[in-house]
């Protein structure tokens, strides 16, 4: 029973962190039609900046600075590299591949700087643990759940109530009509990129905090687990991203928690379980769980 | 003008020249250069396959390294003795290609229905699941340490130094020299089949599919079947490339077939130019040769240090990754149709200048060229 509870809590906290990352994918995809393969590197960048700045600024200061800096860099990537030529086009595989190039560049640079080190982020939870009934949970995990809920709530509120959120939804619905109504698409999408960068930097904290030993050069790859989460939910659906993230987080945690029963599938199946789930879902529903089925009339 | 016989003869002559040139290296170059060539030819075979899928049919795939792994491991296991089926190695090579095609076919329920970036991420799953299987299924794949690859032999002739000794025109033919001709022959086969396909009815259908699925369906293209077909075919080219790589490396290990390899292949076709066989080849040579050359000449390049020297400096692998990451970004920004397309447009523009009153078709190309160049 306690193993079940532990897996459940672990899964929820993992899902919460994935949701921060997956929401970043979704926001970018909604605004620009680009799947951002550089997201993992942006996350690593955010973590690295916190690691470098926290001795000078304190954890909170470093976090704030890193969130701003990562947001600015993500926005700059969009402005300087992606928004060239026909900015109105909404389906752009070439731009998606550009983000792969950006990922190679960022990742090479960051892993060169980090090397084989494990960087502490100086987070306030350290290795403290809280007991809830029969199970003990790392405080950083609980913090992950709380912070993710707050941040995601704020993002959803922004979608719903701010002018930018309205513009974003209009642009995602019909970019051309939105542009004709006076919405500046390029600003809206750069805003989306900045938001995604900020979310990624926030997620980095929890991916490097206690149960993990610290930030390493492979931390960015953990963000890849949020890919299936975003796809599962349907790339253009923020609510779907949430549901997908929880599903993926729980899958990972339970596959890891019941490792011994799943031994037939090989060691470390928990790491790849999300992908197995994703393939099954895509076979059943190619547009994702919450994605709308596009219909073409001729 | 382009149909005049002299021009055709000139083309045939040029082709013959290139073929002869490609046959020459084993007589003049040392093993280092030959190995670069082997890797480049294997990579080009795989890149041509990915070019068909991503460049021509417009399906983003990040699962290419999985199919390379199937080809490499398929050949090694089927042709190997110790864990292995012990088939004749030629048969193992053919079977490995078919096996990769089969794997692509098994994935085609997804590949035929899922589109665009969704497919890109779905194929990501193949890479991670595949790596997991390669590491876990130790009795078959050798786990982390991998397997050593049996040399290919046709009758009593082996593509390895162990076979009967062979000296051609005073040059001793070791493993690399023999493999060179094998790779060259298989790559020529790849080149002609892929070009033939591109120019055929199926190639046109795939291009129509890329431009507009709806329009293609209206014109009578069975969309799902063609998409799945492109996927299977590209997996088979990848399988062949994997087997060739295995032969050149002489050992297969799971870590080689990771996401980074898939990204490499994507970079190859992007740098060379999407949708063209020659472009994919050029990109493959660039991406394959760059890190090897940089490692070899690390001590002579500014800013770059030899591998294994003190941390914080720029190693050759990193330097080449910077270069090709930048190449991907710059090529896509400034020449979305790759280096091949850039050449094409420059030629069109040059022709325009020579003949101001050009035919409307070339004028259209020139206008398009203007749009693309910022």
Describe the protein in words.
The complex is a heterodimer of chains A (298) and B (374). With 298 residues, chain A is mostly helical. Chain A contains eleven helices and two strands, in the order αααββαααααααα. Chain A has helices spanning 2-32, 39-82, 93-114, 139-161, 163-173, 175-180, 185-208, 219-222, 226-233, 238-257, 269-284, and strands at residues 129-132, 135-138. Chain A has a two-stranded antiparallel sheet with strand order 1-2. The longest helix of chain A is centred in the N-terminal third of the chain and has 44 residues, at 39-82. The termini of chain A are far apart. With 374 residues, chain B is mostly helical. Chain B contains 16 helices and six strands. Chain B has helices at residues 5-23, 25-28, 31-56, 64-79, 89-111, 116-136, 138-141, 175-199, 201-211, 213-218, 223-249, 259-272, 277-296, 316-334, 338-354, 360-372, and strands at 147-148, 153-154, 157-158, 167-168, 171-172, 251-252. Chain B has a two-stranded antiparallel ribbon with strand order 1-6. In chain B, a hairpin with a 2-residue loop joins strand 2 and strand 3 (157-158). The model of chain B is unreliable at 358-374 (pLDDT under 50).
Tell me about the largest β-sheet of chain B.
2 strands, antiparallel
Mean pLDDT of chain A: 83
Shape of chain B: globular
Helix content of chain B: over 70%
Taking Cα atoms only, what radius of gyration of chain B do you get, to the nearest Å?
22 Å
InterPro entries (chain B): ABC_transp_permease, LivM-like
Main location (chain B): membrane
Keywords (chain B): Cell membrane, Membrane, Transmembrane, Transmembrane helix
Organism (chain B): Streptomyces rubradiris (Streptomyces achromogenes subsp. rubradiris)
């Amino acid at each position: 029973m306690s193993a079940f509870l532990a897996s459940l809590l672990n899964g929820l906290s993992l899902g919460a962190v994935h949701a921060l990352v997956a929401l970043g994918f979704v926001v970018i995809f909604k605004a620009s039609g680009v799947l951002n393969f550089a997201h993992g590197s942006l996350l690593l960048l955010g973590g690295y900046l916190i690691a470098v700045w926290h001795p000078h600024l304190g954890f909170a200061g470093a976090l704030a600075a890193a969130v701003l800096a990562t947001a600015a860099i993500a926005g700059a990537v969009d402005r300087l590299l992606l928004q060239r030529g026909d900015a109105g086009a909404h389906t752009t595989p070439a731009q998606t591949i550009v983000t792969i190039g950006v990922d190679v560049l960022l990742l090479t640079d960051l892993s060169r700087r980090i090397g084989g080190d494990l960087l502490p982020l100086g987070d306030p939870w350290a290795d403290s643990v809280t007991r809830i009934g029969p199970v003990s949970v790392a405080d950083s995990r609980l913090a992950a759940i709380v912070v993710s809920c707050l941040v995601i709530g704020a993002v959803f509120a922004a979608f719903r109530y701010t002018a930018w959120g309205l513009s974003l939804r209009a642009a995602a619905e019909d970019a051309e009509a939105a542009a004709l109504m006076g919405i500046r698409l390029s600003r809206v999408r750069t805003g989306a990129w900045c938001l995604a960068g900020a979310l990624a930097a926030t997620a980095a904290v929890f991916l490097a905090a206690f149960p993990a030993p610290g930030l390493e050069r492979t931390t960015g790859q953990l963000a890849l687990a949020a890919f299936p989460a975003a796809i599962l939910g349907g790339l253009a659906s923020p609510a779907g991203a949430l549901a997908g993230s929880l599903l993926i987080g729980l899958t990972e945690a339970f596959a890891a928690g019941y490792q011994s029963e799943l031994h037939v599938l090989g060691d470390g199946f928990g790491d790849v379980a999300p992908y197995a789930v994703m393939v099954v879902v895509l076979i059943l529903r190619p547009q994702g769980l919450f994605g709308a089925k596009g219909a073409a009339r001729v | 003008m382009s149909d005049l016989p002299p021009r055709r003869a000139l083309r045939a002559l040029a082709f013959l020249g290139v073929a002869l040139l490609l046959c020459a290296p084993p007589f003049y170059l040392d093993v280092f250069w030959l190995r670069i060539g082997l890797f480049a030819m294997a990579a080009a075979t795989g890149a041509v396959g990915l070019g068909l899928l991503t460049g021509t049919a417009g399906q983003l795939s990040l699962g290419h390294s999985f199919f390379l792994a199937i080809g490499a491991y398929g050949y090694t296991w089927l042709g190997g003795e110790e864990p292995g089926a012990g088939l004749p190695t030629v048969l193992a090579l053919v079977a490995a290609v078919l096996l990769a095609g089969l794997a692509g076919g098994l994935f085609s329920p997804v590949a035929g229905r899922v589109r665009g970036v969704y497919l890109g991420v779905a194929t990501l799953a193949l890479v991670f699941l595949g790596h997991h299987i390669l590491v876990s299924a130790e009795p078959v794949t050798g786990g982390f340490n991998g397997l050593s690859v049996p040399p290919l032999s046709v009758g009593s002739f082996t593509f390895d130094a162990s076979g009967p000794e062979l000296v051609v025109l005073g040059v001793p033919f070791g493993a690399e020299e023999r493999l060179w001709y094998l790779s060259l022959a298989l790559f020529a086969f790849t080149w002609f089949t892929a070009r033939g396909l591109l120019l055929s009815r199926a190639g046109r259908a795939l291009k129509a599919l890329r431009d507009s699925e709806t329009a293609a369906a209206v014109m009578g293209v069975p969309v799902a079947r063609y998409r799945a077909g492109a996927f299977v075919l590209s997996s088979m080219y990848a399988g062949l490339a994997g087997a060739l790589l295995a032969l050149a490396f002489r050992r297969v290990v799971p870590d080689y077939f990771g996401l980074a390899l898939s990204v490499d292949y994507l970079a190859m076709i992007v740098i060379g130019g999407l949708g063209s066989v020659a472009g994919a080849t050029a990109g493959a040579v660039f991406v394959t040769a760059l890190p090897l050359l940089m490692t070899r000449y690390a001590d002579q390049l500014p800013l770059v240090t030899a591998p294994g020297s003190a941390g914080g400096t720029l190693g050759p692998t990193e330097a080449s990754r910077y270069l090709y990451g930048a190449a991907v970004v710059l090529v896509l920004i400034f020449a979305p149709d790759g280096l091949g397309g850039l050449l094409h447009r420059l030629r069109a523009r040059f022709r325009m200048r020579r003949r101001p009153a050009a035919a409307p078709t070339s004028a259209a190309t020139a206008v398009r060229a203007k749009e693309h160049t910022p």
